[in-house]
Amino acid sequence: MLDRHAVHEFFVSYGRALADGDLDGIAACYAYPAYVAGDAQSIAVAAPEDVIGAFAGAAERYRRSGVTRAVAETRGVEALTDSLISADVRWSYTDDRGTEARTESFRYLLRAGGGTVRICAVAATADAASR
């Protein structure tokens, strides 16, 4: 079982891939199949190509809006089994001076193995600041 620090470091790497537009790096963070659930829609993610398609252009949209970093705040980590982990993460999207442009929060279901984790499922959650 990975500790909280290792889970946080996973999200730091994931955030770097998001901000850099590293589509292969983003896709490598997922286990397949995976599932993404939000208020408006749910998406089954069968293969890396699905993740690449979903995130294509996202980094460019971030840059156009002045966002250069996706900063993870790992708010909670819970071991569900020997290999399944629940993690609550608040994302802060900032410019190059660290000014926050917007935030989002998600609950992730992660599978641990081989010294790292992969995302199995993602659900959008209400940002604690807006509750």
Automatic annotation (TrEMBL):
Coiled coil: none
Pfam families: DUF6841 (PF20795)
Signal sequence residues: none
InterPro entries to which the protein is assigned, alphabetical: DUF6841, NTF2-like_dom_sf
Gene3D superfamilies listed in its UniProt record: 3.10.450.50
Segments forming domain DUF6841: 11-125
Name by which UniProt lists this protein: DUF6841 domain-containing protein
Natural source organism: Murinocardiopsis flavida
